[in-house]
Amino acid sequence: MSVTAGSRALLRDRAAAVLHDNDAGSWTKAAPHLYPHQWSWDSAFIAIGWAHLDARRAMAELEHLFAAQWSTGMVPHIVFRAGPGEPYFPGPEWWDCSIAAAAPAPPVRTTGICQPPVHALAVHRIWQLTPQDKRPEIRGRIQALYPRLVKWHRYLATERDPEASGLVTVYHPWEGTDNSPRWDKALSRIEVAKPGPYTRLDTTQIADPSQRPTDWDYDRYLWLVGLLRKYRYDDAQIYGQYPFLMKDVFFSAVLVSANAALLDLADVAAASDGDREQLTSWLDRGRDGLTRCFDTESGLCLDYDVRTDERIRLRTFAGFAPLFAQTADADQRAAQLHVLDSEDFCGNPRFRWRLLPSMSPAEPAFEPHNYWRGPIWPVIDWLLWRSLTLAGYGDRADELRRDSLGQIAAAETFAEYFEPFTGEPLGSTQQSWTAAVALDWSASEHSGEAKCI
Ligand code: 9WN
């Protein structure tokens, strides 16, 4: 099924309606009911969606998020904003970030971890889409936000990479891809005591709880939060003692493209020479780090367990980190493009759409219904689409865009994720970031747009 111009216009209207429905003024709920607060990387994608409707509103989304930035530079993964009628578990009490010296002062309440830094990509896209008459105002707002973005990237390049490896260390599965099998082994070796009584809300909000992480996962997630609390969210203490420290190649690749986006915006933002030099050095270091993690046998880049000194040998979407980051090695790129469209990923003949699943169907841990263990996440395919476009693979990028729109249109809902064989919508419906990337895709006729400012 292809999406015609008429149905694309309809899809665009429905996507815009989702953002309006989830709009809370100057921030947007990640999803009604299941995710009623402001999530960090969701907000970045959401801002891209808003950029198609209103550049000011798009900037407000990010400005609001960065108002909760920690003094270390960390942008927290959730800023708790919903009222008492819209509970989410675990809420601010569980995190108790007031004990952290770097946390923002009350009444701002956040979690103490972070998510992939898509924000600079959002600002880049906002600027591209800003009409001429709004440019003076938006330029001023970008100039005001830019130092905060650099500070955020500095946090990731230093506190989250004390080894200066170019790779970001994540502290928690909630730093992006929750129950991805990438974390299974590390979680299995952590000794946990039952982390106090708790009641999950997510499994009651989703019709089929098998689409969500298990209680085994939640015990570990909450136990890890308890440890982070114990170390008062202090990066040095965490690095010294904490059991879950993973070099995440996907997160690292997003940082690379975000550094490239900030460099692209440097003139718009009137960036200092010092900032330009720093960004260039983080960019180079990130690309080198990813190039070193490449596994020639599988053609994929591998995550790394800092505590056990082990590479995580699994075929997941994260393995395409060199593509996401546009590293320079031509042999690696050729190998990546080959694996991408092989049976192990997008080219699986049983897949309904030629899209990137979160986990290869060739892996024993693959579960087509379960969250980050197999389903297709539109935002991940959006990042791939952007990267392929920038790398000059416009036709493949365009196919990805058309299949993604086809998948969303056929499902008739802006689902959180999709079953790869059937295209069945899964998880939350009316998910803001899915609507946002659908808006961006519907407006992007063909490749080649992502580069020019
Ligand atoms: C925990 C909001 C978030 C996304 C994450 C996704 C999911 C939360 C949850 O939803 O995580 O942060 O409760 O499962 O995994 O990537 O940002 O959409």
In short:
The chain is mostly helical.
Explained architecture:
With 453 residues, the protein is mostly helical. It is built from 17 helices and 10 strands. The strands form 4 sheets. It has a 4-stranded antiparallel sheet with strand order 3-4-7-8, covered by helices on one side. Strands 1-2 form a two-stranded antiparallel sheet. It has a two-stranded antiparallel sheet with strand order 5-6. Helix 1 packs antiparallel against helix 17, helix 2 runs antiparallel to helix 3 and helix 5 runs antiparallel to helix 6. The longest helix has 24 residues. The radius of gyration is 20 Å and the shape is globular. The two termini are 33 Å apart. Bound molecules: (2R)-2-(alpha-D-glucopyranosyloxy)-3-hydroxypropanoic acid (9WN). (2R)-2-(alpha-D-glucopyranosyloxy)-3-hydroxypropanoic acid binds next to helix 2.
Task: Give structural attributes.
453 residues; mainly alpha; two-stranded antiparallel sheet; 46% helix; 5% strand; globular; disordered C terminus; binds (2R)-2-(alpha-D-glucopyranosyloxy)-3-hydroxypropanoic acid
